[in-house]
Amino acid sequence: MGCDIHGPYVFGTRAGVEKLAELRWDRNYLVFGIVAGVRNEDIEPIDTPRGFPEDILSGYGSWNLKPTGERHDECEASHEHAYDDGCHSPSWLSTDEVVEAQLRFTRQTAIEDALNPSANADLAMTIAFMRTAEQMGYTDVRICFCFDN
After folding, report:
1. Mapping DSSP to helix (H, G, I), strand (E, B) and coil, where does residue 113 land?
2. 86-120 exposure pattern, b = at least 16 Cβ within 10 A, e = fewer
3. What is the pLDDT of residue 142?
4. How many Å apart are CA 18 and CA 88, to the nearest integer?
5. What value, to the nearest 5°, has the Cα angle with vertex 48 and ends 78 and 126?
6. Which of 33, 58, 124, 145 could form a disulfide with 43 if both were Cys (CB 3.0 to 4.6 A apart)?
7. Would you say 53 and 126 are in contact if contact means Cβ atoms under 8 Å apart?
8. Sequence-ordered alpha helix ranges (H) in the chain
C-alpha cells in the first residue's frame, strides 16, 4: 500500500488568510521524509508534522478535518492523529523551508535522481509559486499538506 500527499495547498495572507492554489506533487518518499519525516526514517526532516495552522483550520472548514481520535502508525503527537478523510501527519512549510527541502533533496540524491522531473520539478514549481505570491504582496505564505496510506 502506498502513501500519497494531499495538497500541497498554498495559503497567503493579505486581508485575511486566502487559499491561493492547490498544487500536485508526485509520490516520492525521499521528499516526504524531508518535508515531514513520513515514509523515510533515515532522513532528518525539516520538521516533524506540526498540524495545520489554526488560522487556516478556522478559516477553511471546507477541508472538513475532524480528528477521529485514533492514532495513525505514522503519528507521534496528538495533533498528528488521523482525520476522518484518511489524512494523517498534517503539516506546513514556509517558502524558505521548501527551498531548504529542495536543497536537501538535491544533496541526498545522485545527479540523475536530483534531476528527476517529477520530484525536483514539484519542489521548484512550488517555490516559484510561493515567491510569486510574496511578490504580489502576500505575507505568511505557506504550503499545507497531509498524507494518506
Report:
1. helix
2. ebbbbbbbebebbbebbebbeebbeeeeeebeebb
3. 95
4. 23
5. 120
6. 33
7. no
8. 29-36, 54-59, 95-108, 111-114, 119-135
Q: pLDDT by residue (tens digit) across 69-108?
A: 444 444 333 334 445 456 788 899 999 999 999 998 888 7
Residue 45 amino acid letter: P
User: Please, what sign has the CA dihedral across residues 141, 24, 72, 97?
Assistant: negative
For the chain, the distance separating the N- and C-terminal CA atoms, rounded to the nearest angstrom, is 7
Kindly state the cell numbers that stand for 120. Answer: 525536483
d(CA 33, CA 83): 20
CA distance 93 to 69: 25
Could you give the angle at the alpha carbon of 40 between the alpha carbons of 36 and 45, nearest 5°?
35
Indicate the pTM of the whole model. Answer: 0.80
